[in-house]
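Issue 218. Parser rejects a valid record. Input:
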Amino acid sequence: MDVVYERCCGLDVHKKTVVACVLTPEAKEIRTFSTMTEDLLEMVDWLGQHECTHVAMESTASSGSQSTTFWSRRTVKCLW
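Output the parser choked on:
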């Protein structure tokens, strides 16, 4: 299998939490964040620490679209 994105993250967005799984050449790390603004900003900074360039997001509610406003803090491309 070919690597398409070397540093990426999958997000599962819920009403009160976001589960994030970062994949890098070094490791895989999973963390859960609350959907409160402070925690979402912490998540974006965490993605930046891992030099994450692409995020794939899954959400069954409108809460997922609100999370995209935080990507402007980092150069992260959101894949829908």
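Fixed in the parser; the record now loads. The chain has a mean pLDDT of 82.
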